Amino acid sequence: MDSSLPVTTKSERRSKSKNSSSASKSSLLMAFISCLAWLYVAGRLWQDADNRMLLASLLKKISGQRPKVLTVDDKLLVLGCKELERRIVEVEMELTLAKSEGYLKNQSQQIRPSSNKKLLAVIGVYTGFGGRLRRNIIRGSWMSKADALLKLEERGIVLRFVIGRSPNRGDSLDRNIDEENHVTNDFLILDRHEEAQEELSKKAKFFFSTAVQMWDADFYVKVDDNIDLNMDGLIELVQSRHDHNSAYIGCMKSGEVVSEEGKPWYEPEWWKFGDQKSYFRHAAGSIFIITKNLAEYININCASLKAYAHDDISVGSWMMGVRASYIDDSRLCCSYSGQDKVCWMA
Fold first, then answer.
1. Greater confidence, 100 or 96?
2. Which helix (H) or strand (E) holds 84?
3. Sheet harboring 340-345: ordered strands across?
4. pTM for the whole structure
């Protein structure tokens, strides 16, 4: 036998067998651990898939089966909803303001048109509880005949004495006016207006708002009850302006804002008119005329229109917010004799 060949002893064979057995056990253990890890990962993935499917189904129900990716139409719809929500908030604020001012929907619906006839002008003569003598003077000049109001309406003119209610509703002042109106039937009684000197600036809102709902006319005229008015001259004036839209007609003026309390024409909110304290251009309050669309503007926005201390200033401030055509007519100007105001229209 060749002595150079390797010879494996019995002890070496046993050692190799042990090493092979140990390696096999390690491989099996690693395989088992790998299986457990795979099962764990697979289970988590399956659970996540179930959760995703559940969430997807819930989102689908909540969103009304909308696609996961919003289209352009969906985005526009969302923006439209936001705009609608903003408008709803604004309307609710306007409604709250209207309620606080007493302009309730059911109140405005109580006003029914007195006539469907198209009129040339509605003339509102401002009067007070102590103005019966002046009213009688006017009745003796403008309405000297029993059918004078009817004759005027045939010419397209409605004339009414405009008055509010007493601060103490239903007292003798209110009853006297109701009794007088029962005989003469020539009043426009503003039930929502309190007839008081400090409330005079708000009277224009109630007058124009009520008048434009009751009568369909081209012009609405405010007149004080101390004016010696030529009715034919007034009718001629409004007829000459018949083709004017958004017309604000009167004796236009401005002037200094009185900031000292206790003086005539005192303006409590004088500071709003700037450092120079000058009023803006406006028609003198004794008589002025506005067209129907301006009266409708006052009616629609009456709850939010600001009223200053004087009614002519208040109306002038409202006209600044629209494209009104200012028409200065000297025939609508007044003069003063001492403390008495003398107005006429030649």
1. 96
2. helix 72-101
3. 227-229, 340-345, 334-337
4. 0.66
